[in-house]
Amino acid sequence: MLRVEGLTKRYKAGDHALKGVSFTVEPGQVVGLIGPSGAGKSTLIRCVNRLVDPTAGKVFLNDAEITSGAGDLRRVRRRIGMIFQEYALVERLTVMENVLSGRLGYVSFWRSFFRRFPAGDIEQAFRLLDRVGLTEHADKRADALSGGQRQRVGIARALEQNPELLLIDEPTASLDPKTSRQIMRLIVEICRESNLPAIINIHDVALAQMFVDRIIGLRAGEVVFDDVPSRLDNAALTAIYGEEDWAAMRKTAEDDAEDDAEATQARIERMAGLV
């Protein structure tokens, strides 16, 4: 479980990126973090994984505070799996080697330098590659993969850490609509299977509503919405983003989803020889 209490971040210029943000994420719960650019979404994630230190407030992961003092950053960060927008893979390494890099916080320098990981780590990596549908690509270089495949490698690498929390930064920003849905579905399924709490920083509101359990909306560093996706109505969207024709935007998103579903069904029928 993740618990954030009164998290505040004020930069030297005096600007507040976060203003007393508080919330809890239960085991297995997937939270979508939405808001306009500059709302504090990325700062919040960076405070949780200790890439930046908050000005005030506390973060607890399974009742252990991870924001107190300098501490052991390596130990803190290996408890938190990160999935990145731009994948952050080592392009010249194989898929398997990239997944095994999730164990770097646990093995010695020389083991990692010579890529001599324990047998248990390798077995787990194979299981994870099977779970994300990439077993047959284990020996391919990362730069030979599609965007969706790279993101699946990133998911497997994060899970290889055996994390207690997943932080996910715009996982679908570089993907087409169909692949975006596949990736979101995979993330949500894995979190429920593993009872992992997760926060997804996401700009695609319609996609968030389709998959996450709960949505937190930030505006100017403050939480202005925290509820289930079905309660994210036009008034809530206006409070988060400002005035917009939300009804028209919802209709476009629904049409896109319907077109994608029809195209998928047509491909299935062609493959089955029905048409």
UniProtKB/TrEMBL annotation:
The keyword Plastid does not apply. Pfam families: ABC_tran. It comes from Methylobrevis pamukkalensis. Belongs to the ABC transporter superfamily. This is Arginine transport ATP-binding protein ArtM. GO terms for molecular function: ABC-type phosphonate transporter activity; ATP binding; ATP hydrolysis activity. Gene3D superfamilies: P-loop containing nucleotide triphosphate hydrolases. One of its GO terms (cellular component) is membrane. Keywords: ATP-binding, Cell membrane, Membrane, Nucleotide-binding, Translocase, Transport.
